Amino acid sequence: MNLENATKLMETDSIVLFDEQPRYILYIDSLSQMCTISDRPASYIGTRLIKKNVKIKTLQRGKDHEQTQNKTRKSY
Question: What is the rounded distance in angstroms from the CA atom of residue 19 to the CA atom of residue 15?
């Protein structure tokens, strides 16, 4: 994945895959091409960091998980 795609996915709270697990991007450091990922979108209460300093190029775009996103947003 490239920086531009990662930024778009972060802005829309879209799912990305890291080690085949669905995650959300919380923060992007464009200079080092690294990001911080989480188990839930940043607006969700109780969001915890899964991993800091993940290389953006190692991420993959997740499949469209509309049902997962809707459940997550409704649960708070």
Answer: 13
